[in-house]
Amino acid sequence: MTSTSLSLRSPASFPFPSATGACGHVRWVQPLPPKLFRYSLPPAATPAISRRLLVPAAAGIWDFLSGGAGGAAAATLAVRRGMQLFKQGDVAGSVAEFDRAIELDPRQKAYLWQRGLSLYYLDRFEDAAEQFRLDVAQNPNDTEESIWCFLCEAQLYGVEEARKRFLEVGLDRRPVMREAYVLFKDGGDPEKLASKFSSSSGGELFYASLYAGLYYESERNADLAKSHIVAACKSPYGSRSGDYMAFLASVHCQCRNWTLEG
């Protein structure tokens, strides 16, 4: 889910903090060492293009990658600041930096999946869905952005309508994300996803737990969402990897006022 940037309308029955609540700026989170890249599994027969490796096909590609131009260099720094603020729990601050990056270098917008994640936690689901759709237009093999677009639109329109709008993408090389993609696209039992990878090592257990929990969130099942996302946070990968999505799981719990105890 990374680019080269170094890189719910909540119903009354599902009471999450609003954008001005815990998600806006969670001050008590301690930053961890930044490790920006995700785990990698052996490629499948038809691998997808990982967003970690995505190279933006845009004009001025060199200064986008290298920061050779003044505006692009400043925009890249703003993206890095935004990512760090998000990992520290300052979701609103992260969006401000991502928006600044776009002002400095408009080419950034089509690749700022990090901004889409932050917007989700500020309940700005329409803006977040737009961001994910822009990203998938650039990388049509991006499984996670397809799922996150669904999560946003499930909050806007309900699960049934969101599934009709589902962004179909290419085959992900990671078995756990292939399974998660089918679950979100076609519907099913998230317990099967979690169970299938319950004995896995590394990132598979984390990602299975995270996306099982997010599936339950889309269905307004707060208790089961909490159970799985807390489990993701407490997994070895979730607690020690430095993956941006591991930070996201922690921010998710903070925004929902969930503790990791018990």
UniProtKB/TrEMBL annotation:
PROSITE patterns per the UniProt record, alphabetical: TPR
Residue stretches spanning the membrane: none
One annotated Gene Ontology cellular component of this protein: chloroplast
Keywords: TPR repeat
InterPro entries: TPR-like_helical_dom_sf, TPR_rpt
Keyword Kinase: no
Segments annotated as TPR repeats: 75-108
Name of the protein in its database record: Uncharacterized protein
Originating organism: Lolium multiflorum
